[in-house]
Design brief:
Layout lengths: L1 H8 L3 H14 L8 H6 L4 H17 L3 H31 L9 H19 L6 H25 L3 H28 L6 H24 L8 H32 L2 H10 L8 H9 L1
Length: 285
């Protein structure tokens, strides 16, 4: 009673509360009638059709070994790049604290963007048989990235760290451009979103695992220098894997007769996706 009297005494609070409650309960209704027939009727089959279509597209997209290798590098390298990008500011602050000295972190990021764009532009004008030399180039430039990350983590000179970061980011932008082109060239246009979405999801999953193990205080909780040593080792592992695979591919392609190579390219599975118009017309029937 005392609380009600206090509410009434405030003037506008009591009627506002009553009207709000009235409006809330007046709009509370049970489930709309269309939900029941939708859930138990033939319309629910559209979900089954979509799932089957996605699964079929997924299998067809990753049926090519070349696409699997390029996608694997995409996921692994993007996860490592995300970690370096997220924690580079802490690394620079550890080398030279911003509170006691002048830093040029923003300028370095701008230079990285320009150099990365230039590298991505130039690679489009390089005539290389990427089916033969692509995996080897992934291994070589991943080794360059690994060396740059080690330089960032082990140096005590801020300018050397800046240089390492520019090299690392430029090499990543160069390779991600090549990788994107190679993945897209082995897909039909209808599968682009699914394939790049799956690759990005795997990359984010790996990045989450790295963060949970290396950074999180409940796990290892390592200091920033040790973190970058681990990230450098991570890229070195990627480099070794793709160097081995790249050398094997290059040797196999040069030792194999040209006629066998042409026959293999003809037998390479191609993805054929039904158009959305066809899917909709089949569903209406």
């Amino acid at each position: 009673m005392v609380s009600c009297a206090k509410l009434k005494s405030t003037g506008w609070v009591f009627p506002t509360a009553v009207l709000s409650l009235y409006g809330f309960f007046a709009n509370c209704r049970p489930a709309e009638p269309f939900l029941t027939p939708y859930l138990i009727g033939p319309y629910k089959n559209i979900s089954e059709e979509v799932v089957k279509l996605l699964w079929s597209s997924f299998r067809e997209s990753y049926s090519s070994k070349k696409l699997v290798y390029w996608s694997l590098w995409w996921a692994l390298a993007t996860a490592g790049y995300g970690q370096v990008f997220n924690y580079i500011q802490l690394m620079w602050d550890h080398i030279e604290p911003s509170s006691t000295s002048s830093v040029y972190n923003g300028g370095v990021e701008a230079i990285c963007a320009v150099v990365g764009a230039a590298a991505a532009f130039c690679v489009g004008h390089v005539k290389v048989t990427w089916d033969v030399w692509g995996e080897l180039s992934l291994g070589v430039f991943s080794a360059v990235g690994a060396g740059a990350v080690f330089l960032i983590g082990l140096t005590s000179n801020i300018w050397a760290s800046y240089a390492g970061y520019v090299i690392f980011k430029a090499s990543y932008m160069l390779l991600i451009t090549i990788t994107t082109f190679q993945i897209a060239s082995n897909l039909s246009m209808a599968c682009y979103a699914l394939t790049f979405g799956v690759n990005t999801f795997i990359a984010l999953l790996l990045q989450t695992i790295l963060t949970a193990i290396v950074v999180d205080e409940t796990a290892l909780g390592l200091d920033i220098v040790t973190q970058f040593i681990i990230y450098g080792s991570y890229y070195a592992t990627i480099s070794v894997l793709f160097l081995i695979r790249g050398m094997y591919t290059a040797c196999a392609q040069h030792c194999r007769p040209k006629q066998a190579m042409d026959q293999e390219q003809k037998e390479e599975p191609k993805v054929e996706m039904p158009s959305s118009d066809r899917f909709c017309s089949d569903h209406r029937q």
